[in-house]
Amino acid sequence: MSEANKQFNIRDYLREYLFPHFLCPGCGHGIALRALLWAIDELDIDKDRLAFVSGIGCSGRLGNYIDANTFHVSHGRPLAFATGLKLARPDLEVIVITGDGDCLAIGGNHLIHACRRNLNITCMMLNNEVYGMTGGQVSPTTSSERYTTTTPYGNHEPVFDACALAEAAGAGMVGREITLQTPGLKDVLKQGLAHEGFSFIEVMSDCTEVFGRKNDLGNSAEMVLTQKASVRPDFLEDAVDQPFRPHQIKTGVLAKNDRPEYAESWRRHIAAMKRDRDHA
Amino acid sequence: MPDSAPSKTANLPGNHACALGAIAAGCRFYAGYPITPSSEIAERMSAELPRVDGVFIQMEDEIASMGAILGASMGGMKVMTATSGPGFSLKQENLGYAAGAEIPCVIANVMRGGPSTGLPTRPAQADIMQARWGTHGDHPIVVITPDSVPEIYAQTIRAFNLSEQLRVPVVMLYDEALGHLIEQVNLSDAGDIEIAERKWATDPKPEFLPYASGDDLIPEMVRPGDGFRTHTTGLTHAENGFPTQDPELVDRYMRRILDKLEIHSDLIESFEAIDTEDADYLVVAFGITARAARRAIKQARDQGIRVGMFRPITLWPFPVAAFESIIDGKRGVLVAEMNAGQLITEIERYRPAGCRIDGLNRIDGETITPRQILNSIQELAGHE
Prior knowledge:
The complex is a heterodimer.
Chain A: H1 2-5, H2 29-43, E1 50-54, E2 69-72, H3 78-88, E3 93-99, H4 100-105, H5 108-117, E4 122-127, E5 130-131, E6 137-138, H6 162-169, E7 173-178, H7 182-194, E8 199-204, H8 208-214, H9 220-230, E9 231-233, E10 249-256, H10 262-279
Parallel strand pairs in A: 1-2, 1-3, 3-4, 4-8, 7-8, 9-10
Antiparallel strand pairs in A: 5-6, 7-10
Helix pairs in contact in A: 2-7, 5-6
Chain B: E1 9-13, H1 14-25, E2 27-32, H2 39-48, E3 55-58, H3 62-74, E4 78-83, H4 85-101, E5 105-113, E6 119-123, H5 128-133, E7 142-144, H6 149-166, E8 169-175, H7 176-180, E9 182-186, E10 231-233, H8 247-263, H9 265-268, E11 271-274, E12 281-284, H10 288-302, E13 307-312, E14 314-316, H11 320-327, E15 332-337, H12 343-347, E16 356-361, H13 370-382
Parallel strand pairs in B: 2-3, 2-4, 4-5, 5-8, 7-8, 12-13, 12-15, 15-16
Antiparallel strand pairs in B: 1-9, 5-6, 7-14, 11-13
Helix pairs in contact in B: 1-2, 1-6, 3-4, 10-13
């Protein structure tokens, strides 16, 4: 029970000298960051070996606060950058922190191909249903009918299911959790980090200040309780829905795909070619 | 996998010379996306890199390939990508990130006609302003325009040296005709060129400032895993690497990344001047067009017209000091280029009083011929 005895202290992983941080009151992103660092702590990963790559948006700024090798890159491109970094430096634990706009809209193509390649990267996508940093515009995951600064008459577009996309594209591991279930989120992230391959974890975050306010969704606590009421954890997969309260959003580890990891299979392939050449 | 290492002398198309120059310079990571007329660079790299324990990856698009090389560069490798017009447009976003975060990288742009999809299989020299100003905001960049296959080889090595030493993106800019032209290259020439390495930080003290520099204005680079745990961002940053909007710190950062090229101009500047000293007239040409100009000035001299040629090898930053001393006293200048008149706007900035400046422009997907240049020289000289 060494794990239980070891006290996780988030301050060991933060650049506290940058505080106060820039997140709004009630924002779920800080809880997601806590869960991620907690998972890293339990896996006992050396900070010098940790490389965080993030894009643009509220999610992209989390890297600032982590005491590790942190790269804040261009909008939508963290997975492309991380692919180069991981291939150049397989010894690093490369973690991408991205958002629903960064990952699914402008960076959608990179997500599909990162899943397909199955390079050993962990991608944590913070889904707060909105472009918060730019003032609250509609995103690919904004729920229907919701108001944003660019859907003044309500959102009429369908919602992107990022996890279904990642699974279909071949990601090695796919998971989802809400911030309220912080220990559960930590466990899903831990599985993602430990998985040899590309793991995609969607975190249902909440944007209280911009999205919540615009849609009269209440304070942060009310927003996450609403989230909780709509999820179906993986252990309740067979439960029967109550028609007045459908549990539509599945959480937990949603898919595992035992496919060859990209860099490892590449190294094996090249080694075999060299062997053939030497014996020819 | 072909098993023979390249022989010391080889007949190569320009694009292969570019790839082999990169390998000789120490490039060990290439990410690319197929595009005519540059694809042979990627193809050659895909064959060469595994032999030297390097990494080749074909990414999902141009943007991703530019992003991937920056990740690998920050991981500590010398990196490259190659493209052509439409792809070069897509690379501008991350090229700006490289300029701002000072990430060494080399980008080859094998120019074709444009705009848009344009003339994929025909040469042009119409991306020279895009190469300088394609990404947004004030930014440092070095652009090299070779005029032969051996020069593509040698200058690609130099491009890596400059990029690694100055922490700046370097563009190898040549046209489709040079990319596919086959000439003999002496690969052992690489042995004569010193290979430069980036300046690594070695002492991870808590007070280390990743974007502080000495008089050379080049900050040391950190390798992840060496204990520095620094932050890299495309946001305007202070010497500690973290974003800032403090006007004083912003100004210091902006001036440093721009001034660093100026104070190292001796390293960057490169040009060729032929018969310019006694000349009344000057032809300014670069890349494939300079080859035609070389012949044309000889023919003009045979006809008694005293004409010389100025050829920028490093096109950007433009070799201003050298050019100003050469253009001084000239009666006329002909700027020959395969575009509608781009370099001429730069040349006009240095026009001495009484000097006439003509443009010779070809935008039909064909190279400029020696006869066209000779005719224009005659017109320039006969005008008085």
